[in-house]
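Predict the 3D structure for this chain.
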Amino acid sequence: MHKELKQLSQNLTRLIGRTIALAFLFVVLVVGTRDVLAQEFPQHDLRVETIAENLDVPWAIAFAPDGRIFVTERTGALQVIEDDSLQNAPVLKLDVGGAEGGLLGLTLDPNFEENHYLYLYYTYSEFLSTYNRVSRFTESNNSVSDELVLIDKIPGAAIHDGGRIKFSPDGKLYITTGDAANMLLAQNLDSLAGKILRINPDGTIPHDNPFADSPVYSYGHRNPQGLDWEPTSGILVATEHGPSGDKGFARDEINIISAGKNYGWPEITGDEEDPKYVSPIFHTGDVAWAPSGAAFYDGNRIPDLKGKFLVANLRGVHLHAFEIDTTQGKILSEQSLFSGTFGRLRDVHINDGYIYLLTSNQDGRGSPRQNDDRILKVMPLNQGLQKETQEETCSAGLELVIKASNGNPACVKPATKLKLIERGWARN
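Done. Predicted structure below.
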């Protein structure tokens, strides 16, 4: 009897131990799931969460007023994230050129809520030639149709296709184009290659462009892939890839862009100067960063980055933050964020005070990690750990809603609020 009781006690002890172990494992799996998809950076007081993964070389991202997120994949798919979930099928699939070309730039019309226009920059093949074009499409209930080609036959190649498109504060559409591996085209005003272009939303040429009847805004560029306007001064700043054997190596650039100016490629690079050309306000010297998308941080959630020019770097595998005096054309300070942590970064976008990054580790030049490529969301460190206790307030003209998916507040236009509530995506 004594032996039986002892054996029963041992069995019970083992059972309790296993139960505790399983319970602990359950807690780790459930509670820790979010932490697996997030990383903390106490030195910057930041937290980075993954909001989408297993993307195929994402290139550009745009946010609709109703909360949907559109993202291009270089292989030709336009994807949408709705209610915090990547949809099963793309809303559009294009037959695109390969290598560095493909489905690249994306932006939504400033009046997207009313007209549902979205704009795409993509590469295509025609017989033995490669070109890029910018087209306007109409979106309706996650379906995209009615292509209207705005500007066509931009020279393309396996490399140097540019591809960033963005609306300026004055409502014009700006387009960055590469030299299509023919450096002489950058200096040719009759070519659309190696330029920053400026057109109206309908594809017509603005009357105040610097060259009559031409979409060319600036020229002498090698391969610009990022641009944005400093919020206070309205001055345009752009990133540009430097040479990679042709005319030297590295010397990636940050440029202040002015109408009608010549930025020197391939005549000057780096510290070289010539009164006929505009020199960069910053270059990377002998270290290649391959800067891509860029944006001025105009939010309030991350005060340390307020007003800084954020640059996503491919080869440099980090996000760089510049403090720029745009009126004087000077770099006041700079810092590197997330160096080597997420691999190659293709784009950076600001929405509602958060920073969104696109990785590009599947593009043939990176080292893909599990579940690459991804969309990352950068937020204050303490926001990821606890719900904000202060009452959310909205700017004039916006109204507060609570997202049905996660209970987070959001400020939207009154018309958007009605649509979100009707669809069940939000509540008062």
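Residues 19-36, 386-390 have pLDDT under 50 and may be disordered.
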